[in-house]
């Protein structure tokens, strides 16, 4: 973001509105592994771009597990992803006002 703090804060708001986490959980719930892989891969990239390292690592692990067909091993990984995501979204909501995030 080239040091543009306001741009980063604005992107935090977009992260909160991004549907990828919901899509990932739904794909896993219905065992749609291609969709789960796509959502996990997208969330991994988003987390990496935003500097959310724990979320990037946990989604990266899920990508590897799905790609390798190791579906019986995803339970703990999905729980970790949801925990990482919750920590991030809670921190964003605690740290910034709605106006700051929306650039108002």
The general outline is: elongated
Order of helices and strands: HHHHHH
- Tell me the span between the first and last alpha carbons: 19 Å
Tell me the Rg in angstroms: 14 Å
Uncertain parts: none
Give the % helix.
Answer: over 70%
Structural class, judged by helices and strands?
Answer: mainly alpha
CATH fold topology: Four Helix Bundle (Hemerythrin (Met), subunit A)
Overall mean pLDDT? 93
Quickly give the CATH architecture.
Up-down Bundle
Strand content: under 5%
Major sheet: size, sense and barrel closure?
none
CATH class annotation: Mainly Alpha
Number of distinct helices: 6
Give the strand tally.
0
Domain count: the total is 1
In short:
By secondary structure, the chain is an all-alpha fold. It is built from six helices and no strands.
What would your notes on this structure say?
This protein is mainly α and 104 residues long. It is built from 6 helices and no strands. Helices cover 80% and strands 0% of the residues. It is elongated. The model has no long low-confidence stretch (mean pLDDT 93).
Spell out the blueprint of helices and strands.
Blueprint: H1 5-17, H2 20-29, H3 33-50, H4 53-67, H5 74-95, H6 98-102
Helix pairs in contact: 2-3, 3-4, 4-5
List keywords for this structure.
80% helix, 6 helices, elongated, Four Helix Bundle (Hemerythrin (Met), subunit A), mainly alpha, 104 residues
């Amino acid at each position: 973001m080239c040091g543009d703090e306001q741009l980063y804060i604005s992107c935090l708001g977009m992260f909160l509105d991004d549907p990828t986490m919901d899509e990932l959980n739904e794909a896993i719930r219905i065992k749609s592994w291609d969709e789960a892989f796509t959502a996990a891969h997208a969330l991994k990239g988003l987390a990496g771009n935003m500097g959310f390292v724990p979320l990037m690592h946990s989604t990266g692990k899920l990508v590897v597990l799905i790609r390798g067909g190791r579906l019986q091993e995803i339970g703990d990984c999905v729980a970790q992803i949801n925990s990482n995501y919750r920590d991030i979204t809670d921190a964003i909501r605690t740290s910034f006002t709605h106006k700051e995030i929306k650039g108002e």
